[in-house]
Design a protein that fits this description.
It is a single chain. By secondary structure, the chain is of the alpha+beta class. It has a single domain, classed as q2cbj1_9rhob like domain (Jelly Rolls, Sandwich), CATH 2.60.120.620. It contains seven helices and 13 strands. The strands form two sheets. Strands 1, 2, 3, 4, 5, 7, 10, 12 and 13 form a nine-stranded antiparallel β-sheet that branches.
């Protein structure tokens, strides 16, 4: 086993766990070199901060900071270094254990991106569960978030709400975009229980698609960069005709193969 029973139990109970130093410094630095060349100028496909209109985002592409990238999309097809990481045994064997599945696939439709949070013009992502936007046979997927540098409160690092993947909340506790409403008293205890992931370069966060998470703005003078992929059991397929099925998913080779 690549995870201890204690780690698997932690994931099942809390909905996330951190594996320290899973990626080598060399791997992270090589990824950063590829990313830097893809940011100057931004290499399509790109999602810009102004596209999402989250709190703090520039109002339009013509406003100050309007050309600030938020995500470099389709990371898997951008370079072999991302493909090798996404399907490596370091990642896929661990995901198999968390999903209790012998065969898994990487989604090309969800995450599959390089997340960038720039100083000055980054936006805040409100509390949400990824599975509210994804459509699969079962709401059981795992995302793998690789930190290419330090991630903390100051630079807009991820916050997560422990055990929130077990929560089934009434529709009225969300807004129209399926973000958790912070103005409701009944949501406050949940939000107040959140913790920061606090990652260093090479640390990898595994989190369930039902785990509530959020992130603030980058208040430092350096770009925060992460690589994120999402996985599901091969038996858990996206619903045909939805955004979750736009592109074919990538099977991850197992030991038996």
């Amino acid at each position: 086993m690549t995870f201890t029973f204690e780690k698997i139990n932690e994931f099942q109970q809390r909905g996330f766990l951190v594996e320290k130093n899973l990626a080598s410094r060399e791997t992270c630095e090589n990824m950063l070199q590829v990313i830097e060349s893809s940011l100057n100028p931004p290499l399509a496909p790109v999602e810009f901060e102004t596209d999402v209109q989250y709190p703090g985002a520039p109002t339009s592409r013509n406003s100050m900071g309007g050309n600030t990238p938020r995500r470099l999309l389709h990371a898997y097809t951008r370079d072999s270094i991302f493909r090798n990481w996404a399907t490596s045994p370091l990642v896929s064997d661990r995901v198999r254990e968390l999903l209790h599945a012998n065969q898994i696939e990487m989604s090309q439709n969800h995450h599959n991106c390089i997340m960038t949070k720039h100083p000055g013009f980054s936006s805040a992502t409100l509390w949400h569960q990824d599975i509210r936007y994804w459509l699969f046979d079962e709401p059981n997927l795992v995302s793998v978030w690789l930190a290419l540098g330090d991630e903390n409160k100051e630079n807009g690092g991820l916050q997560l709400i422990p055990a929130s993947h077990h929560k089934r909340l009434e529709r009225g506790r969300y807004d129209a975009a399926f973000f958790l409403r912070p103005d409701l008293p009944e949501n406050q205890p949940l939000i107040n229980s959140a913790i920061y992931a606090n990652l260093s370069q090479g640390d990898t966060l595994f989190f369930h698609s039902g785990t509530f998470h959020a992130a603030g703005q980058n208040q430092t003078d350096k770009i925060k960069t992460s690589v994120v992929f999402t996985y599901h059991a091969s038996s858990n397929q996206p619903l045909e005709g939805t955004k979750s099925s736009n592109y074919p998913d990538i099977p991850c080779p197992g030991e038996e193969e």
